[in-house]
Specification:
2 domains; alpha/beta; single chain; 271 residues; elongated; D-Maltodextrin-Binding Protein, domain 2
């Protein structure tokens, strides 16, 4: 199952958009230091991905495989100092290809579900997916999540972000919409006071609507509701590859490469 929903088409243009000052993600445990396996244990890393998941992995106008995950895979190999290959598979075949030893690691947003956990091990999370409020620009400075009584909040009907609101802010009136995009459009039109939903998808919408709206308040991380985030899958028991990837992720955060990749591909930050 795909971890993330369909990304809006404007995400394809994000790599060339200007970056804005923003908070940067940090998911690695600063006290954890994986031991890098020797070169004989990990002579190369064969990454598998897909080509239909912008801005993480997709083909540009020239047909080249590009995206955040593509750049991250290359950076991991550079950090570990091993040969690196990247091969794109159709989504419905990618997990089978990993199980059949067609590659060493899958970097494509595979859900860390119980079923997938029986077949694969996962690296540390390299990107979590918070929920956030979006308001019209004039309301950002005065927004207070503890003072929402009498205000209406747009949510996707039946989604995890609606469940969050019902659990933690049960007295706040909700307006349900079939999709997040229709909820955001209602906010822009002044039909609701705020929107609450997946921050990353909202960021893609904001990229085209910065004159209207923006994030308000902080980011909410609830793995039990919003998922564990993005990590890299390896076949179960392939510990040397997993340790090498986890070691590289800590190093890439320490040396600023993860931050640079985040700013490159997500100029409207969602943290």
């Amino acid at each position: 199952m795909r971890l993330l929903g369909l990304i809006v088409a404007s995400a394809l243009a994000l790599s060339s958009a200007p970056a804005y000052a923003q908070a940067l993600p940090f998911h690695a445990d600063p006290s954890a230091r994986e031991i890098l396996p020797g070169s004989t244990a990990v002579p190369a890393i064969r990454f598998l991905t897909t080509a239909d998941f912008p801005p993480f992995n997709f083909r540009d106008a020239s047909g080249e495989l590009v995206g955040y995950n593509v750049d991250l895979a290359k950076a991991i190999c550079d950090e570990v100092n091993v040969a690196c290959t990247l091969q794109a598979w159709p989504w419905e075949q990618a997990t089978d290809a990993l199980s059949d030893s067609q590659g060493d690691a899958l970097i494509a947003g595979l859900d860390m579900s119980v079923a997938n956990g029986e077949k694969f091990d996962f690296s540390a999370t390299y990107m979590a997916l918070p929920g956030r409020f979006v308001t019209r620009a004039a309301d950002i400075a005065s927004f207070d999540p503890d003072a929402l009584a009498g205000r209406t909040i747009a949510v996707r009907k039946g989604g995890v972000h609606e469940a969050f609101m019902q659990r933690y802010l049960p007295d706040v009136p909700l307006h349900e919409y079939d999709t997040e995009l229709t909820g955001l459009a209602a906010l822009k039109a002044g039909q609701v006071d705020a929107f609450f939903g997946d921050a990353m998808r909202a960021a893609f919408w904001l990229n085209d609507n910065l004159d209207c709206c923006g994030f308000a308040g902080g980011a909410y991380f609830r793995p039990a509701l919003f998922g564990e985030g993005l990590s890299i899958a390896v076949p179960a028991g392939h510990d040397a590859i997993r340790h090498a990837i986890d070691w590289a992720l800590v190093r890439l955060k320490d040396n600023g490469v993860l931050d640079e990749l985040y700013l490159r591909w997500f100029p409207v930050g969602f943290y």
